[in-house]
Amino acid sequence: MVNKEAIRKEIVEKSKTVFTKFGYQKSNLDEISVIVGKKKSSLYYYFESKEDIFRALIDHESNLMYKELCIQVKNQTEPIEKVRTFITFRYKKLTELVTEYNAIKNDFLDYIHLVYSVREKYDAMEIDLLEQILSDGVDDEIFKVTNTNLSAKAIFMAIKGIQMPFIIAPIPVDIDKRVREIINLIFYGIVK
C-alpha cells in the first residue's frame, strides 16, 4: 500500500507546475488532477481544496527555504557574516521564487493572507535563528545589543518590508549592493 503522505507530497510537488503556469486564481483541481495522473475526486482524499494544496505548496517551499538558510548561515563562522548571509540568502531566494512563480505574483495581493498564514511559523523560526546569531555576536563582544529578541524581530521585519516590492513588482536591482546598504544600515545605523 502506498503511503498517504508520499502521495500528498507528490501532489504538492506536481501542483507546482500548474500554479507556476496559471497562477493561483486560474489554477483548478482539474488541471492538477491531470498533472498528478489521478481523478479529481481522488484528490479530495488527500486535500480538501485547491487552497489546501496551495497552502501545502507554500509550506513545502518555505520548509526548503528554511533548511537552505540554516545551512548557509551555519557555513559561516563570524556573526557579522552570518547576518550578511541571512539577508543575502533571503533576497536571492526570494528573487528566484518570484521568477519561478511569475504567474502567481500577478494576483499575489488577492491571496497574501494564505501566504502569511503558512509563513507565520517559518517567520518565527527565522527570527529565532537571527536572534541566536545576534546572541552569539553579543557573547563574542561583536554586537552591542541589549535585547536580542526585539532586535531580531526588528531586523526581520525591516528585511521583509524591503522585500515586498520585489514580490509585487520586481524591478532590476543589484541585490548585492542592496544587501550591503541594508547591512550598513543595520550595523552602523543612521547616526553620523
How would you characterize this protein structure?
The mean pLDDT is 88. α4 (50-74) packs parallel to α7, α5 runs antiparallel to α7 and α5 (79-100) runs antiparallel to α9. By secondary structure, this protein is mostly helical. It has nine helices and no strands. The protein has a domain at 57-188: Tetracycline Repressor, domain 2.
**Spans where pLDDT lies below 50 across 5 or more residues:** none
The number of helical elements comes to: 9
CATH homologous superfamily assignment of the domain at 57-188: Tetracycline Repressor, domain 2
Note the beta-strand portion. under 5%
CATH-defined topology of the domain at 57-188? Tetracycline Repressor, domain 2
CATH class of the domain at 57-188: Mainly Alpha
What general outline do the C-alpha atoms trace?
Answer: elongated
Describe the secondary structure blueprint for this structure:
Elements (H helix, E strand, L loop, with lengths): L3 H23 L2 H8 L3 H7 L3 H25 L4 H22 L1 H4 L6 H28 L8 H21 L6 H14 L4
Helix pairs in contact: 1-2, 1-4, 4-5, 4-7, 5-7, 5-8, 5-9, 7-8
Features:
192 residues, mainly alpha, Tetracycline Repressor, domain 2, 9 helices, 0% strand
Summarize the structure.
The chain has 9 helices and no strands. With 192 residues, the chain is mainly α.
